[in-house]
Design goal:
The protein is 28% helix and 8% strand. The termini are far apart. The chain has two domains: 67 residues, no CATH class; 68 residues, no CATH class. A three-stranded antiparallel sheet has the order 3-4-5. By secondary structure, it is α+β, with helices and mostly antiparallel strands. Strand 1 and strand 2 form a beta hairpin.
Length: 180
């Protein structure tokens, strides 16, 4: 019989240890989450500082700051009562916080950044309501994906997409004629 050296060792040893329990952590006290989305109301009653609502052809799109700084309280009340977007975005000014509890709304314009100033000709960082089929879309969709007829309709005056996509729609002069 030939000696070929030491006998090979087994590759794994049978486990003799008890199973390990999964680690447990103490319960975490989770506080309620307050949504910051424009679709559902927040628990804080305040105006949205970077949102706009359409007033009319003379004033076009305005912010809550504009509404709050109006001198005539009856005009503020009139806009708050007749303009759903103003009532939604300017809850503190319109005293409408309780009106939005448990309700949702699809405003015409939702900006992610700052409100374009009067002398800027840009496509804003935000989206606009198209219709129930397309819902909210942005300037990238309008330029590259929107059907031609839909793009033409959106790039007309006084439409939310036309405001958000001023450069693409070539409507900067119109929007910059806005009255104070």
């Amino acid at each position: 019989m030939e000696d070929s050296g030491p006998a090979p060792q087994p590759t794994s040893k049978p486990s003799t240890r008890a199973p390990i329990k999964a680690p447990t952590k103490p319960p975490i006290n989770i506080s309620p989450i307050t949504s910051t989305s424009t679709e559902s109301p927040t628990s804080v009653c305040k105006d949205e500082s970077n949102q706009v609502f359409y007033v009319n052809k003379k004033f076009k799109y305005k912010s809550c700051d504009w509404l709050r700084n109006m001198k005539n309280q009856s005009k503020i009340n009139k806009i708050c009562n007749k303009n759903k977007d103003a009532n939604y975005y300017c809850r503190e000014t319109c005293n409408s916080c309780d009106d939005w509890i448990g309700k949702t709304h699809n405003p015409g314009v939702k900006l992610n950044g700052s409100i374009p100033s009067g002398n800027q000709c840009i496509d804003a960082d935000g989206s606009f309501w198209v219709d129930n089929k397309y819902q909210y879309k942005d300037c990238n969709w309008l330029q590259y994906t929107a059907p031609k007829k839909k793009r033409k309709k959106i790039c007309t005056y006084d439409v939310p997409g036309d405001y958000v996509c001023q450069k693409l729609c070539d409507t900067c002069k119109y929007w910059n004629k806005s009255k104070a």
